[in-house]
Amino acid sequence: MEMFILTFGSLGFALAFAYINLRQTEQKLEESRKRRETGTVPAQ
């Protein structure tokens, strides 16, 4: 039973981590899209 909880917990953590990464990537894409529309390019 403990193994099941550990596995499920790890899976949930991985899913949450992936979801957060996805959201952050979407925000970055949205920001760069807005920058492109205004014509300003961020300094790398």
Written account of the structure:
It is a single chain. The chain is mainly α and 44 residues long. Helices cover 84% and strands 0% of the residues. It is built from one helix and no strands. The protein is rod-shaped, with a radius of gyration of 18 Å. It starts with a helix and ends in a 6-residue tail after the last helix. The model has no long low-confidence stretch (mean pLDDT 88).
Low-confidence runs of at least 5 consecutive residues: none
- Put simply, the count of helices is 1
Query: In percent terms, what proportion of residues is strand?
Result: under 5%
- Biggest sheet, open or closed, and with what strands and sense? none
Task: Give the termini separation.
Answer: 50 Å
Estimate the global geometry from the Cα principal axes: rod-shaped
Mean pLDDT rating: 88
Count of strand segments: 0
Characteristic key phrases:
1 helix; mainly alpha; 44 residues; rod-shaped; 84% helix
Brief write-up:
With 44 residues, this protein is mainly alpha-helical.
Task: Give the topology.
Elements: H1 2-38
